[in-house]
Amino acid sequence: MIYAALLAVVQYLVVSTGFTPNENAIWLYSGFASLLFGSRLLNPHFTPPADAATNAFMALAALIAGSLVVAPDSAGAALLWGVIALFAAICIVSVLVLLIRPPIGAEIRPLVRLADKAVRGLGSPIVIFTIVILLCVWLFHRTRADEVAAILSAWAVIVVLRPVESVLGFMDWAGEQWSAVKAGQVVGAIAAYQSPGIVLVRQLGDNSVPRGTPMVVADNNGPWMLGVALNYVGRDEGNLLRVLTVRLPEGLKSRIAKLPEARGTGIALALSATPEELDDVPAIQWINRLCGVVVSDTNLDYVLFEVTEDRDLAEGRLVEARIGDHHVIFQIIDGLTREEIVQQKNTYGYARAKARKIGRWDADAGKFVPVKWLPRINSPVFLLDSNEHAVSPGAIGHFPNTSFGVSLNISDAVTHNAAILGILGIGKSFLSIELVERMIADGIKVICLDLTDQYAKLLSEFLDGAHEKQLEDDLHKAGGRGKAEQNREEGGTINQFSQKLAEQLRAFVVEDGRNLRVLNPAAFDVWRQTGFKDYKTGDASMASLTPTEVTAIVSDAALTVCQELGMIERARVCLVYEEAHSLVPEWNSVVAEGDKAATARSARAILQGRKYGLGCLLITQRTANVTKTILNQCNTIFAMRTFDDTGKEFLSNYIGRDYAGVLPSLEARHAVVFGKASSCENPVLVRLNDRQPFLDAFRAEQPVQPLPAADAQ
Q1: Rounded distance, CA 385 to CA 288, Å?
Q2: Helix axes 2-13, 145-156, angle to 10 degrees
Q3: Using an 8 Å Cβ cutoff, are 353 and 313 in contact?
Q4: What does the pLDDT read at residue 713?
């Protein structure tokens, strides 16, 4: 309306003929039609071929009418008809483009695309209007300097200067400033992008930006993001602040466009936002738990993250990172320091942590479920909150400082064999006692071969003292030196002892209703004949059996009993080898030559026993001195603190070198657990149950059953 009034004022006040429709008004009516209605209303941004044809036709009609007052053979007539020919060509080509272009899909013919581009440019209202104005000024107004100046000035104002648009735009911008989001001072300019999700801000000023401070990362070259301050990573021309970028909350999206414009590569503005507006931004809600960001070299098994906050970090702690739609848990197993160059000689030192993938916690199943793939680089890593752990009856322990328990399939632990390995005084025996009690509750018969006599004391509720003494007395009677025989295999008491032991174990497994038997192989005096009988004296050389040889007798007897009962899928009998380095030693650690053959017999029993429900629990502090024939068959491993290289090298084959490297620094009552019986598919570092809390929780669900009455003798 303002521009139309301007054109009308110029025509009325300056042009001599006023609004009379003649050649002096062609520029006015063309301006109304082509400029105002075309460029401001119909085609403000671009001109399609149909409108180009319309614009050219209207200008063509006006100029043909004006040709009636132009001398036919003059230079003006030649110029006029040249312009008429141009407009006619634009109109015709526009119509042809409309007719031959495909109704759907992209045009691929070069000539048609060139023609389309040409008519879109030449047929725009501004181009048509400008040509008409200049032509009319030359043909009809050049003799009047005031008319030329007024018409050309009006054209320059409308086409070039565009003052109305500038004023209205400024008024809109000024109005937005009063309703803009309140932002504090500029934090700084964006120094670099670490895609995805991280920007470095070169801070202005010396004030410290606290971790978790929300800000707007404004960049004209991309969408504006909500930033969360992480930590400082060095200095070049100013302090470099690392900022984690996340999506804008819905509540701020409608207001974010009213923030001050970003200049250059972008700026970061401290943002004043209510807690309610940031409720759906996890990075802010969990900022107190954010401990780092994922860095390069992360793989499918491990996450490597740069530590931004090392408070409460330690080996064994659990951290969380996102993989796809899942929150996946990792366990920290290693850390190292790194240094990188920020700019020129300025360096930035930091700590990098390594964590093993555990999986996604399934609350219904009470275990971790594997999750495939790996987290994105620069994604945040959160430390899981420390929770007071309540002992679960089904869990052998929990992840340190969390309530996530690790359970055990006790039958699989027996049939596929288990081993507890570690130095003295770190809780091996208490763990083995707990496992034995779980076996008893599951109906598995347990035969403990114990040189320390502590099992009889700690598991006294499951033993009838009088009954056990009677059985031991019977075994002692079957032992002793015995008589020499012509056949050396029949001399001594080894056969009698073996028969009596097999008889007792057969009754124990099948008949008497008890689930625990404790034997000390060193307490039995059993002999075998090693030489030929002397007919004069009736004697022969004898040798006392070592604990290893007595252990072999027990192992053979247990296998025989289980074979008599037939094959079974679940566990039936477990042999507990306490101080296994003395009971089933490695060939180069035996104290007597006969121990080699005895260890081989025990190993054969374990190897053959699985399909009959026979397995073992092996406990030792000297991994190198235990027969690898049995140890290699242990499919569930509890690795506790150990220092010797042989033990760590052996365990690295099971739990990996990373977890093996953690073993020397493990605290007491901590273990790396891995194997078929574990509820976790990968090795995990676990805080084991303490004895009394375990008893309180477990026996509440699995009370000790009364023992059957002993047989009268």
Answers
A1: 10
A2: 180
A3: yes
A4: 40
Contact 43, 33 (CB under 8 A): no
Residue 584: what pLDDT?
95
pLDDT in tens, 636-687: 999 999 887 777 888 888 888 888 888 888 899 999 999 999 998 889 999 9
Q: Which residue has the tokens 């990792």?
A: 330
CB of 188 closer than 8 Å to CB of 369: no
- How far out from the chain centre does Cα 253 lie? 29
Under DSSP, is residue 375 helix (H, G, I), strand (E, B) or coil?
coil
Q: Are 294 and 304 in contact (CB under 8 A)?
A: yes
DSSP 158: I
The answer to whether residue 26 scores a pLDDT higher than 80 is: no
Contacts of 707 (CB under 8 A, 6+ apart): 462, 463, 464, 467, 513, 514
Predicted local distance difference test score (pLDDT) of residue 330? 95
Answer yes or no: is pLDDT of 512 > 80. Answer: no
DSSP state of 591: S
More confident residue, 585 or 270: 585
Determine the Cα–Cα distance for residues 561 and 557; give it in Å rounded to an integer. 6
d(CA 381, CA 432): 36
The beta-carbon contacts of 12-19 under 8 Å, at least 24 apart in sequence, are 14/146, 14/147, 14/150, 14/151, 15/141, 15/147, 15/150, 15/151, 16/144, 16/147
Answer whether 432's CB lies under 8 Å from 620's CB: no
Q: What is the pTM of this model?
A: 0.72
The rounded distance, in Å, linking the Cα atoms of 52 and 192 is: 46
Cα 651 to Cα 424, 646, 657, 658, distances in angstroms? 17, 9, 8, 11
The separation between the first and the last C-alpha atoms of the chain, rounded to the nearest angstrom, is 123
